[in-house]
Specification:
The protein has strands at residues 8-14, 23-28, 39-41, 50-52, 58-62, 70-75, 82-88, 96-101, 107-112, 117-123, 129-137, 144-149, 155-160, 165-172, 175-183, 190-196, 201-206, 211-217, 224-231, 242-249, 254-260, 264-270, 276-283, 289-294, 300-305, 310-316, 322-330, 334-341. The chain is mostly beta strands. It has one domain (90-329): Methylamine Dehydrogenase, Chain H, CATH 2.130.10.10. A hairpin with a 4-residue loop joins β25 and β26. The chain is globular. The two termini are 14 Å apart.
Amino acid sequence: MAFQRNGYIVFAGTYGTEKDKAIQVLTLDKIGQFGKRLSYVQGIANPSYLTVNQNQDTLYALSEVADGHVVSYSFDNVTYTVQEKSSQQEDGVEGPCYIMLDENERYLFVVNYGGGSISVYRLADDHRILELTDHHTYSSGSHPHMIVQLPGTDRFVVTDLGSNKLYLYECTEGKLTRIQECAATPGSGPRHAAVLATHRKIYVVNEFNSQVSVYTYDSTFSSLELVQEIDTIAEPIEVNNYGADIHIAYEASFLYTSNRGHDSISVFRIGDDGLLSYVDCVAVEGKWPRNFAITPDERYMLIANEHTDSIVVMEIGADGIPAYTGEQYSIRAPVCLKVFAM
């Protein structure tokens, strides 16, 4: 399939069966319009979270089922085909919801919401998933949802939605050592996080109280402190709302969160001190924006509206506010998007 290489590649993970085209490879051109689907992946159920390595030649996916597993795929950036490379299904994967590579791409971290645990796998030089190197199970009622690395360090933060806590870890040769357990606001449900290293800030979108919590970490990367809480929706609402995803436009210094129920994207300006000020809240032209992604040039925002089976394109203005372009891609139950330049 021939087309101009002047846009973006989009990986879309969905809720689907092994018979469905549950992972799809799409293109978006420079004017924000979707092209034809390039390829797809079958044989994996509910690939609800994806990640891609820095060379953009390996895709990792999890299968969000009770007895889940993780898979690596080779991605040919000439033919745009995807082939399974390796898979791991051990006691360390139980209802997974999030995967992440460390900065050096030596380990794959798997967060198991259903099993209340976190797992670490060693990676081969060719990016295959090797043996389990560590596994931590939390207390009853815990539902860890995400892990994020503090850039340039060996420190990692895990959000525990069920227990309303954040955990700070050091990772050495694939082994996690807990440094701090930080209590979040009771009933908040810390879900996803984004890090701004220049200000030593961690921004956490909470699932249950429609707020973003801002934490600072010290120069030794050994202590977290809550320094701000700010509402994601300025006006009173009459629907139940659940915070979902969070991303930073680093060049423009804006932060965004998605709201399921209110079905919107919240916009915040990041101040010189790393603290947030509310800017606006924009409708997502669909329902249940579980995940969204920002193109590398920070021009477009792609929103996965799970309940209305669509990926919506918005263009981000100079004021940081995304505006609907009228472009949508129809896809069943999209729940995770990864986008990069072609």
